[in-house]
Design a protein that fits this description.
heterodimer; A: alpha+beta; four-stranded antiparallel sheet; 5 helices; rod-shaped; B: mainly alpha; 10 helices
Amino acid sequence: MKEKIRIFLDTDLLEKYLLGTTTLEESMQVERYIAMYPEVRKTYDELQANLETFAKLYALKTPEGLKAKILNRVKAQNTGRRKFQRYAIAASIAALLFAGSSYFFWNQNQNLQDENVIVNNKIRTLEEDMKEQLEDVRNQFIVLNNPQTKKYAVNGNKKAKELKAVAYINPVKKLSYINVRSLPNLPDNQCYQMWAEVNGEMVNLGVIKNVDDKDHLRPLPYAENAVGYITIEPQGGNDTPTVQNIVANISY
Amino acid sequence: MSSLLEKHIVELLHERNEKAISLLYEHYGDTLYGVAFKVVRDSELAQDVLQESFVKIWKKSDSYDSSKAKLFTWLFRITRNTAIDKLRSVNTKSDKEIQIDISDVYNLGIDSIRPEFMDVKENMEKIEHKYHVVLDALFFQGMTQQEASDELNIPLGTIKSRLKIGLRELKKIYGNSMILLPLLTLMS
């Protein structure tokens, strides 16, 4: 071990390190030796003391005004640094604000796009509804206003004597409507349902929910020699009409 | 330099207190100016070097590690390297107008010794010239040992041994004045 230290001290690494002219690797090696071996540490401390002594031999009185110049330059350095720091902070805040607002606007844009899709869909649905209703109203008008339209009064049979309805059939335009004006009350678990037998097939025309809207005309599918039925069915409607519960029929 | 004052200055440096620079200048200014002058051999250049060195010292103050080097060693390294860089940039400009003349360097060093170090000067003369030349070349001229060997026409092994002996001699001579010297600096 002693030999290793001697060899190390024989190189000029320690002197080079003292003057700060070692490479990074050399510095690491020297620092390791200094940390590990007290003799190396001692030699290094001696070298440092000698360097200071040697350098002081050459001390020269500094010229007047040099100190002030140096202090000014250091101060300028500081304000520069402080200024930079202030700019850096300002820039960071600006960047954060920008990022924040960007996210906010992006989010808002995304929400608005979603809303736009919903609104567009609503408009389309409304348009379709409107067209359908307008078409319906137009057809109703044609039927009611056409001299060739035949008007049939429909009465309920003995199961529903109070049932009154009017059917409008126009064989030329092939349109038919029914207006149910009054229906006898039914228990809660039953309802009226309309059917039409068209070309030998039974078509479900849906449950008659109420007769509040007495002026509402329900379209009937048109066919030659078709028959419309109103039946009493369990609440919610049925898939096929219950024949024994027919309360009214219209042949047209 | 008392280690207490050194500690105080280091603390100020780490706190980035500008007072540290003022204290450093007061206690090391003359020595560092001497080092700079010894390298560049021109008072204008030496002043530039000292200014640049102090700015570097201030900028690097966070990186000073007292466990790795004494404060003076660190200051010396910065000043010496700044001075050598300065000399190189000037030399490349003036096409090596300034030649390294050992005897001239030696005389300048001695002539510029401060009066309060007169006893030191006497001691200085006791260091044999041959050691002194080597120390000079290595410490102030920025030569590597190989370069000093070539420049002074002395074998590399001799350079190494003279450097070691020279440093040891220094200690032997200043055995007592080493204690005196810091006191002198403090009083100055």
